[in-house]
Structure prediction request, 344 residues.
Amino acid sequence: MEKHSNNGGFKNTKKPSYDCELILKKGVNIKMNKISKDQFKKAKGFIKSKARELERCRFEFEFEHGSKENILTQLKVYQNEDGGFGNGIEPDFWLPSSSPMATWAAGQILMEIGADKNDPMVNSMISYLVHTYHIDKGMWDSVLPENNEYPHAPWWHWQEGVQENWMYNPSVELAAFLVHWSPNQSKAAEIGWNSIDKAVNYLMNKSNMDKHEINNFQQLIKIIKNYKSTFEAKLQYSLESVSQKIMMLAEQCVDKDVSTWTEGYRALPLDFIDNPDNPLCERFGTLVEKNLDLYIEQMSEEGIWDISWSWGSYPENFEVAKRYWKGILAVNRYKQLKEFGYLE
Prediction:
């Protein structure tokens, strides 16, 4: 489960002032304090010297015309012989063997670079997901008992009944991967649609939802929109009605009290929005600008962000995970800031 740092821990009290521009995106006025080239250069220096090689390659792919092949090479480090991923690709649990959650983390990056369905890495991953699916539950195990044998954050600790806390996080997104990367009518695609059907029925009867599970459903919509006719033929709901439900849950989940945003792990507007064309920009209004401003205020002197959570155990391992997360957050946030036109 990807964590988003809401409480950066650092305040850049020497932040330079910028000329503000007013832009119009989807009817929302966003007043921009752009990030300077010098700040971006410092962030680049941190990512190149202290982040994992995977994040360095992702950064190069996004900002320096880096290759997909370099990212695939780095992902291979985390893939096991069974096709699943592990080996700490999600820095908050260090289980070396494969898990659906670690495989989801890899799958998101494969989606990010537009990996081809014929890539051997993708084929192996799909095979792993087919063999670990629980058809009776319509989902994959989010947390495995083996997690407990290795350093991990408390929320990754397995105990009886823990799946109730996770439900379709990340199963609905894994199901979308299967549909996206598998041939029509294949067993893998059938499993994907089976899980999506159960997940959507669950979604449409929910009155509130955790932000991470909402993110999984948002990714479902992003992936499955290319399969709209099949979706509506197989399910009892239209894709539009499902999209509206997800947006309603996101609106309900987001913390609208700006004064509390630095008080720990909060659901912020930009946890649900990755670009200014997202219809949630209109719904959240000025909260989007305030969230962007908060990101700028919380930047450290290195041009990055601290994380807003801790393990409370395995202190030495957590320090390593914390550094890895800083690299992940930096890449993800600079991608957002680029989309919103906040980079000089």
